[in-house]
Task: structure prediction
Amino acid sequence: MAEWVQILTPDGTLKEGATTRLSEERLVEMYRWMVLSRMFDQRALSLQRQGRIGTYGPFSGQEAAQVGSAFALEKEDWVFPTYRELAVTFILGKSMSSTFLYTMGHLHGARSPEGVHLMPAQIMLATQIPQAVGAAWASKIRGEQAATIVYFGDGTTSKGDFHEGMNFAAVLGAPVVFFCQNNHWAISTPLAKQMATATIAEKAAAYGMPGVRVDGNDVMAVYEVTKEALDRARQGGGPTLIEAVTYRYGPHTTSDDPTRYRMQEELDEWRRRDPIQRLKTYLLSKGIWDEDQEEQLKEACREKINREVEEAERVSRSRLSEVLEVVYGELTPDLKRQRQEIERLGKGEGGVTWPV
Ligand SMILES: Cc1ncc(C[n+]2csc(CCOP(=O)(O)OP(=O)(O)O)c2C)c(N)n1
Ligand SMILES: [Mg+2]
Result:
């Protein structure tokens, strides 16, 4: 395996000579977020199977990459996520109920909380990358102390927008961190069919920026490399590419069946490097966590997730006319005409029975 930054090894002990600047309290806080995120993920999967939410893209296995990087962010920073970074959005303050609403096709589910620099989840691969570079460049021009982080997957590095974004960021010295969650698969396409380089991090050299490869299942190492990159960006040191090496346990989305293209042995191998189990082992060995606390945490998470599901299910369905209302502050003449058409259809003309 190519070189990477690692602090916490899969057996839950610190690598020889490695230290973390994270306090015990912060580590416990990270652990709580990781457990809550995994339980959310499992619940969402089961809700989809019951037909209570729509298509869902699970992220179990990738909690350390998400929680570690989110903990390195400052309030002023800008965040551009994909569909996969739900744990990041929870830490930034997006509620789980609004995420459930999103998966139910409710328009308000895409909304970020007021005052939080979080963009909506991007599904069109890589398109968020040049946008994030633009946002970072704007921060630089305005002389703000903010950095931008943009998330994407391994497969996304094959798109032109990734290369354009990387080049512009380096040329402009934009304060942006490119955070790639290399989970080894782009739906059913494995990494080896995606690129001919040994790592994603090494691509940074071609653009003139640092590239860092990190054990993405090691929350301490992910925090460390992300914090360093964000601090450097805020201090005028320009962009960084981070490759967090991790694995998704579940299907790409609920419409996918990974048993058709992935070997069980590969999954078993990654489960032995589980990000949550290794942090738990560490916390137990330090005496800052015990099985009673574990039980209490799981019970509290279950209750919280139940409340969030109930809250989402209480919200009435989006009205069809809302799709027009959320585009502009004031409707354009063309959208007004479309609204009239929707109202006409809603009255039953054309046999349509959607809520309008
Ligand atoms: C422009 C574009 N092309 C194709 C797709 C369909 N698509 C959705 S996710 C995906 C694979 C993405 O893989 P990766 O970048 O590794 O991210 P991951 O889903 O593994 O987190 C593809 C091809 C899309 N959403 N957008
Ligand atoms: Mg991937």
User: Anything to note?
Assistant: The first helix runs from residue 24 to 49. The chain is about 45% helix and 10% strand. The chain has a mean pLDDT of 95. The radius of gyration is 21 Å.
